[in-house]
Amino acid sequence: MKTKKIWANMAVSDLARTTAFYTAIGFKPNGSSQDLTSFRVGDDDFIIHFFLKNAIEPNIGGKMADPGQGNEVVFTLSADSEAEVNTWRQEVAKAGGAIITEPEAFGPGYYGFVFCDPDGHKFNVFMGG
């Protein structure tokens, strides 16, 4: 079997808040409807659809994970320098994201931090050699 494309579907509670947050940190809008807001991320335009929780759960035949109780997935956003990681940290905080860990070195050539969006979905911003 050949897969043409992969994307992510995430559950959120407030589409306007989600749209404002991801727009503020520079994700590229990819359309919206009454049930979702969608963005393209990175050079390869990875798509993340953010569905209202009550709209996606009936379509998957079960519950979405509660990001406040654990991590279903952690997305990594690449950065080219420590300065870029630090800029991401400032922009995420300004947009209303929660900083989970402050930017720090993880060994020679590695630097990053972890944040949550307003619904608790975790991302890390990482520069590494």
From TrEMBL:
List residues of the VOC domain: 4-128
Q: Which SUPFAM superfamilies match?
A: Glyoxalase/Bleomycin resistance protein/Dihydroxybiphenyl dioxygenase (SSF54593)
Q: Which domain of life is it from?
A: Bacteria
- Gene3D superfamilies on file: 2,3-Dihydroxybiphenyl 1,2-Dioxygenase, domain 1
According to UniProt, the name of this protein is: VOC domain-containing protein
Q: Please report the organism this UniProt entry assigns to the protein.
A: Taibaiella chishuiensis
